[in-house]
Amino acid sequence: MMVIGILLAGGESRRFGSPKAFAQLDGELFYEKAYQALDAVCDRIVIVAHPEIQPRFPAELDVITDLPEFAGEGPLAGILTAMIEKLGDLYVVLPCDMPFVGPAETEKLVSLMDNTKNITAIQTPVEKVPLFSIWKTGLQEALRKELSDGGRRVMVFMEKAGVTWLDSKAINEDPSVFRNINRPDL
Ligand SMILES: Nc1nc2c(ncn2[C@@H]2O[C@H](COP(=O)(O)OP(=O)(O)OP(=O)(O)O)[C@@H](O)[C@H]2O)c(=O)[nH]1
Question: What residues bind GTP, as annotated (predicted)?
Fold first, then answer.
């Protein structure tokens, strides 16, 4: 079983004002936090980065950019790119802007994965959290079609592909662990 981690860092960070992957929390960069969380459960990790920040990552990391035909077209473009570039059985997706998710959370998510569905993700009492999720292989063609048809919305694709939404409490009692940082003051 080959488990690939997909670290999403291909966004514009417009609301944040500077690249979120390189923002800091407790002396660590956001992308380092996400990397450590993925490292606990993945055989390999691929960072799908915005071209402008690709050179800033350490040379030993595997950093790619979106497929040219879908570049910058949102998280689905990043996920498809990683799935095409790295063949695996399972893909654990984590965005660079969820710095409170750590190894304990990725381990629980993997252990609670619903094998009967293509995607397993979580929902807190207030919202669904589509980008902290596990995707089975075999979705590449459906993803390509979705993007070619102009589909950009992650949750729309997830529902079409088949998704189980786990209660976030099963992974961490505190729902604020699953918040994503969009602005510098949050
Ligand atoms: N590979 C890739 N990742 C993306 C793309 N757009 C967003 N992401 C990532 O998906 C996650 C959620 O992104 P958002 O916060 O919605 O968007 P953002 O572009 O980073 O920020 P804003 O410009 O403020 O909307 C982050 O980890 C982004 O880096 C994209 O086009 N390609």
Answer: 8-10, 20, 66, 97
Find the 155 Cα to ligand 1 centroid distance in Å.
14
- Whose C-alpha lies nearest to ligand 1, atom 19? 11
Domains of the chain: residue spans and CATH:
3-178 (3.90.550.10)
CA distance 138 to 147: 16
Reported ipTM: 0.98
Question: Against a cut of 0.95, is the pTM above it?
Answer: yes
Residue nearest to atom 14 of ligand 1 (CA): 11
Ligand 1 atom with minimal separation from the 97 CA:
27
Q: How far is the CA of 96 from the centre of ligand 1 (A)?
A: 9
Please give the distance, rounded to the nearest whole angstrom, from the Cα atom of residue 9 to the centre of ligand 1: 6
